[in-house]
Design goal:
Elements: E1 11-20, E2 23-30, E3 36-44, H1 53-59, E4 69-76, H2 82-90, E5 101-107, E6 112-113, H3 114-120, H4 125-144, E7 147-148, E8 157-159, E9 165-167, E10 174-175, H5 192-195, H6 207-222, H7 231-242, H8 254-263, H9 274-285
Antiparallel strand pairs: 1-2, 2-3, 3-5, 4-5, 6-8, 7-10, 8-9
Helix pairs in contact: 4-6, 4-9
């Protein structure tokens, strides 16, 4: 096997799978055994390298509902394959300066994220319940390690070939120490107390704000926006759902909806913890 610093050279890069969380993701295949993986390349510069420690902590957590990272390493210089240079130009880099190093993360290959999968199909009740239970179990484990994801969305939850939901993309993760951090994430998933801080340079991202974001994710699976909707139309549709302007659904039990509604409480102190939600869902589905 190649040494860790030459491991990237032991991989065929098959195709780009997009970018997010401060990096670019490619599907790749090992030249020796043919195993397929996802590999995420995160450009680094001197000013941003110190901020990646919480992300590296998170990716090495071992839990069935957290996207596993098999290897992580840093190399000087930028990879020379042409598509990377093109993809790099399209990124909104976190680096204040030109990146000089790359953090490589070798990850489990998945079927897709919930956003891409939901465009192909509408999830049915049992699938939504499995996703809900898996995500809240993974989130409870993340929170037990005093880490806050900070960017839960349909894009950042993945499904593997066995249909297991995996929380990934830890580019906005912070340590739950009560210290304000730069706010990341997509507006429609941000909790009300986080949105109020958007005008500030930094804000307080908490475990309770993660719980709110996960509730929005589950809402989107239960009430998918009409096909062909624009992003603004999807946000308006979701806003109506949050404000209880919707038809009664039959996909998941009312008791599950009650739990999800408590997660959407505008007051962060009124939201249940991920651990208590996990216990409630287990009892309901037992």
């Amino acid at each position: 096997m190649a040494s860790i610093h030459n491991y990237f050279r032991a991989l065929y890069i098959c195709e780009s799978e997009g970018h997010g969380g401060g990096g670019i993701v490619y599907r790749c295949k090992h030249k020796n055994d043919g195993m397929t993986f996802a590999i995420k390349l995160i450009p680094l510069c001197d000013s941003c390298e110190k901020d990646i420690f919480p992300e590296v902590r998170a990716i090495f957590l071992i839990h069935p509902n957290i996207l596993p990272c098999y290897k992580a390493w840093v190399e000087n210089g930028l990879p020379m394959f042409p598509s990377f240079q093109d993809d790099l130009k399209q990124m909104d880099l976190k680096c204040a300066n030109t990146p000089t190093r790359i953090l490589y993360l070798l990850l489990e290959e998945c079927e897709g994220n919930l956003e891409s999968l939901s465009l192909r199909k509408e999830f049915v009740g049992p699938e939504i319940l499995d996703i809900f239970q898996g995500c809240v179990n993974g989130l409870a484990y993340l929170h037990s390690k005093d880490l806050v994801h900070g960017d839960l969305s349909l894009k950042n939850i993945f499904m593997n070939a066995k249909g297991t939901a995996k929380i990934g993309d830890f580019g906005c993760v912070v340590e739950a120490d009560g210290i304000p951090r730069p706010i990341g994430g997509v507006m429609k998933y941000l909790a009300p107390e986080i949105r109020k801080q958007l005008d500030d340079e930094k804000g307080l991202i908490t475990k309770a704000s993660d719980v709110y974001s996960l509730s929005v994710v589950i809402l989107e699976l239960i009430y998918p926006a009409p096909p062909g909707s624009t992003e603004s139309e999807r946000e308006h549709f979701l806003s109506n759902i949050k404000n209880s302007i919707f038809q009664e659904q039959t996909k998941v039990p009312r008791t599950v909806m009650d739990v999800r509604e408590r997660m959407l409480n505008p007051d962060p102190l009124g939201r249940p913890s991920a651990q208590s939600i996990s216990s409630n869902i287990c009892q309901i589905l037992a």
